[in-house]
Specification:
196 residues, alpha+beta, 12 strands, 27% strand
């Protein structure tokens, strides 16, 4: 009996490995860094996967380990590629969400509008003679929207259009100020218009 066989026998647990010596052996091979290829993350994702020949080893976030065995190494490689692709998509979605947060976007259901509500008239700094009307906040749908349903908005910015025009502009709330209805012409949008 080899030292490796003894280590497998000592490692097998009816809970962690479901009593499988093959799972324990593959786990030790992966632990030694000798797997053919690895992907995933048992902490941040669904599982860690390692391909060892025609077997794919999985370790889940609770530490349970199991092995899928295929008829050929090619079949195992294809199964592993599917897992690797899913993990890559997960990482891209994480990066996309991180970038959205960095750009000031937040999940829409967590945002409360405290100023510059849709329909409200505002003035834009640097354009004192023109009134703008607020359309709402810039919105963003990440690639995960299809399954998550989460839409992101940027509470620090507003989409506005000039009164009497339909072009949309995106401005920071810090350069906006509220206008009363008597301050501008509702037809031409001019602030201080003699006809209003």
């Amino acid at each position: 009996m080899t030292a490796f066989t003894e280590e497998v026998r000592e490692t097998v647990s009816p809970h962690k490995f479901g009593g499988s010596r093959i799972a324990a052996a593959c786990y030790l091979i992966d632990l030694d860094g000798c797997a053919d290829e690895t992907t995933g993350d048992a902490i941040d994702w669904q599982y860690h996967a390692a391909r060892i020949g025609r077997r794919v080893l999985y370790t889940d976030p609770q530490g349970f380990v199991w092995v899928d065995t295929y008829d050929s190494e090619l079949q195992a490689a294809r199964a592993f590629e599917a897992d690797d692709r899913s993990y890559g998509e997960y990482l891209e979605a994480q990066e996309e969400e991180s970038q959205a947060w960095s750009d000031g976007f937040r999940p829409a259901d967590s945002v409360v509008i405290d100023r510059f509500h849709p329909g409200e008239a505002v003035r834009v700094e640097g354009m004192p003679g023109i009134a703008f009307r607020v359309e709402g906040m810039p919105t963003l749908r990440l690639s995960s929207f299809e399954w998550s349903g989460i839409e992101y908005v940027n509470p620090a910015r507003r989409l506005v259009h000039m009164v009497g025009d339909d072009r949309t502009f995106d401005y920071d709330c810090d350069i906006l100020s509220s206008l009363d209805d008597d301050d501008y012409c509702s037809s031409c949008g001019q602030v201080g218009c003699g006809w209003c």
